[in-house]
Structure formats: C-alpha cells, structure tokens
C-alpha cells in the first residue's frame, strides 16, 4: 500500500527524493514481508519525525482531523461544497424578502453560523510516509475521497477511523489516529503496537516482527530478532548515519537542518 518515487527529482516541484529498504524479514510482498523503508524529500525538510527532518518511514500511517475552509468550499470537488451551496441558496432566498422580517434574518444568521461550523474539523488527512490524502467530511457524516481515489474513510462509533481500498484492503486507526491494524483481502493481518506515540513493533501472522528502539525520541535501531540496523543523529536531530545488517555505514551530510547535500555509501565512504 506504500508508494515511493524512483526518480530522485520530482518533476512537479523539483524536490530531491531518496528512499531505501533497510530491513526486510519474510518473503514475497507486504503483508507477508515486512519491509522497513525510509524516504526523504527536500520539500519536507521542515517537517520533523522520528527519523529527523525531511524523513519518514513506510510504517508511519496516520489519520488526523484537520480544518480546511478551501476544501469545504469545493477546492477539489463540487461535492465537497454541498454545505456551502445549500447555505448560500437558503440565505439568498431568505434575504431577498424586501420586508426583512426578523425571523428570516435570524434563520439566515443561524444558517451562516451552521455553515461556519461545517468548516471546523471538516477534513481527515490520511498520511502514509510522506504522502497524504485529504478526505472531506460531508453534511451526512460521510467522507468524500480525493479526486481519482476510490478508497473509503469511515468514522466508527467509537470515534476511530477505518480506511478501505477498492481492492478490499483495510487499515484501522486507534483513538490517537495511528494505524493499529492492516488487513488485506485474503485476511492476512498486520498489527502495530505503540508506547505513547512511538511505534514499537509491527508483526504479521507469519511469525515476522519488526521491533523499534528509540533514543531521545528518534529511532535508534530496528530489529527483526535476528538482524539489526542502526541510526545515528547529530545535535540538530539530522539523520547522519545508517548502519546496515553487515555493520556497513551510509552517512548523510546536510547544508541546513533537514537539507541533504551529500550521501556517502560504504563502497566510497569519503567521496
């Protein structure tokens, strides 16, 4: 379910991107194989994460409530603007009465207040790695997906969210908005465990588990029980070293915090 770019330069924004698979227990594809992948984008250099500024990983999947007036007024879809169109039409009809009866003025005012309320907490952003999808809440409580997206976002009775794809894969998010289960169309389930907001383990039904360790709020190592990869950071919180399962290190140099300017691989550690 996670898509990473292959071209290092984004054609639309000109941003530099970089991705790497660090540890991959299991065989086949996700969810049978639990590949831990990192992705960097220079356009996200001001966004901090457990891997440092500009970085994200594929098991970081969230559903967060947000307010977006532009979306609520139909920036991406006319369906998103249903509340705005209904309120504008109703208020227009009420205020065209030349006698301006007080009851109509009150109703129009209440309608405008209602519309304003529709623009508060009216979107849910589902983020996977550095990619985000904006779902807009409609007056009936359902969510309209982004253009070209057939996935469904469902608000459950306990206030949590479920994300269903057209291929019948589903993700459930806990009360904090973090993914806690993924299930594919065949019933294979992946479970996500947390300590506070930090992801501590990812496991599937094939006896594959990834365990995450943290130092000062940053991921310091990831292990599958037999193999371990490690991460190091500078004083600014930039990810500066990655050490693979063979104890070979890749280092990253930065111009500004979050802005990668150099990558040194184990085969050429200084050039």
From TrEMBL:
The keyword Repeat applies. Residues 170-267 form the Teneurin-like YD-shell domain. Pfam families: DUF6531 (PF20148), TEN_YD-shell (PF25023). It comes from Romanomermis culicivorax. Keywords: Repeat. The keyword Repeat applies. Residues 7-69 form the DUF6531 domain. This is DUF6531 domain-containing protein. It comes from the Eukaryota.
């Amino acid at each position: 379910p996670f898509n990473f770019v292959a071209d290092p330069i984004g054609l639309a924004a000109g941003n530099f991107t970089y991705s790497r698979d660090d540890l991959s227990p299991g065989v086949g594809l996700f969810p049978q194989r639990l590949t831990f992948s990192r992705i960097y984008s220079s356009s996200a250099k001001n966004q901090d994460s457990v891997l440092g500024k500009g970085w994200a990983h594929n098991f970081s999947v969230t559903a967060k409530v947000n307010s977006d007036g532009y979306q609520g007024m139909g920036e991406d879809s006319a369906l998103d603007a249903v509340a705005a169109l209904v309120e504008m039409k109703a208020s227009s009809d009420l205020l065209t009465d030349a006698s301006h009866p007080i009851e109509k003025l009150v109703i129009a005012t209440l309608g405008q207040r209602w519309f304003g309320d529709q623009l508060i907490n009216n979107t849910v952003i589902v983020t996977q790695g550095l990619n985000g999808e904006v779902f807009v809440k409609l007056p009936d409580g359902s969510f309209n997906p982004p253009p070209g997206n057939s996935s469904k976002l469902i608000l459950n009775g306990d206030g949590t969210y479920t994300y269903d794809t057209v291929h019948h894969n589903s993700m459930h998010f806990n009360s904090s908005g973090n993914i806690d289960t993924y299930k594919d169309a065949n019933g294979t389930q992946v479970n996500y465990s947390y300590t506070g907001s930090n992801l501590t383990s990812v496991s599937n039904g094939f006896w594959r588990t990834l365990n995450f360790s943290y130092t000062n709020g940053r991921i310091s190592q990831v292990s599958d029980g037999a193999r371990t990869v490690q991460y190091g950071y500078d004083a600014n919180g930039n990810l500066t070293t990655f050490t693979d399962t063979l104890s070979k290190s890749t280092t990253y140099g930065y111009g500004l915090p979050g802005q990668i300017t150099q990558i040194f691989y184990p085969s050429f550690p200084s050039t």
